[in-house]
Amino acid sequence: MRDLVRQLLLWPLYSVRRLVATVAVLTAAVLGLVALTSAGGGQPTAAPGPGTPGTRPPSASPSRPAPTPSTSPSRDYGRAIDIAKAFVAAWASHPKDQTEWYVATARYATDHMARKLTTVDMRNVPAEHVTGRARLTDTGGVGQTQVAVPTDGGVVSVILVPHPKAGWRVDDLQPGAQKEQ
Fold first, then answer.
1. Whole-number Cα distances in Å, 47 to 43, 106, 167
2. Residue 175 belongs to what H/E stretch?
3. How far apart are the first and last CA of the chain?
4. With 0-12 CB in 10 A as exposed, 13-18 as middle and 19+ as buried, what is 62?
5. How far apart are CA 21 and CA 13, in angstroms?
6. Does residue 66 contact residue 125 with C-beta atoms inside 8 Å?
7. Are 109 and 117 in contact (CB under 8 A)?
8. Per-residue pLDDT tens over the stretch 134-146
């Protein structure tokens, strides 16, 4: 038995090709294990802090309460419109510091979008406020919907995904992606 174990442990060292193959298989196994254990169902966790120099991640909870959960987020498009409008209002605002802006926007975002927000300098946001009524523009995407929100910088297209505990969450936005009506 010891000889078999010894042969198995030495097998990768017989050639470079075997060593590379062994390392590749072990790496794939570890990455697969990590992917399986980190698959949390897309639920947001603590969002990272803003990526601007000299700022610290937010430590206090936002001043306004987060949106209340919906019982059926995939069909509650009115709630999706409300979340999109609230997100764009926070995104277009220009508070005193980057951390305050990040906290205001990240509360409506998925983890994916919250990470993207860490790379945004609020001074580069091309709008200052919402100027009209948000409207639902697409519900055909599997597990997502799209809302157009008019701002003084043009229409912002907001992509939302349903969230089991929080109703809807913003997963992406595209300023100027839709024409005004």
1. 11, 7, 18
2. strand 167-175
3. 77
4. middle
5. 11
6. no
7. yes
8. 998 877 767 788 8
Is residue 110 within 8 Å of residue 163, measured between CB atoms? yes
Q: What is the pTM of this model?
A: 0.58
Q: How many residues does the chain have?
A: 181
Count Cβ atoms below 10 Å from residue 87 Cβ, excluding itself.
Answer: 28
Nearest to 64, CA basis, from 94, 106, 111, 120: 106
Q: How crowded is residue 176: how many other Cβ atoms within 10 Å of its Cβ?
A: 12
Contact, 171 vs 110, CB < 8 A?
yes
Cβ proximity of 146 and 170 under 8 Å = no
pLDDT number for residue 54: 42
Phi, psi of 138, rounded to the nearest 5 degrees: -160, 125
Residue matched to tokens 């509650």? 76
d(CA 1, CA 137): 67
Q: What are the b/e assignments for 12-21, b being 16+ CB within 10 Å?
A: beeeeeeeee
The DSSP-derived string for 93-123 is: ---SSHHHHHHHHHTTB-HHHHHHHTT--GG
Question: Which is it for strands 145-151 and 154-163: parallel, antiparallel or unpaired?
Answer: antiparallel
Residue bearing the bigger pLDDT, 55 or 176: 176
Q: Which helix (H) or strand (E) holds 169?
A: strand 167-175
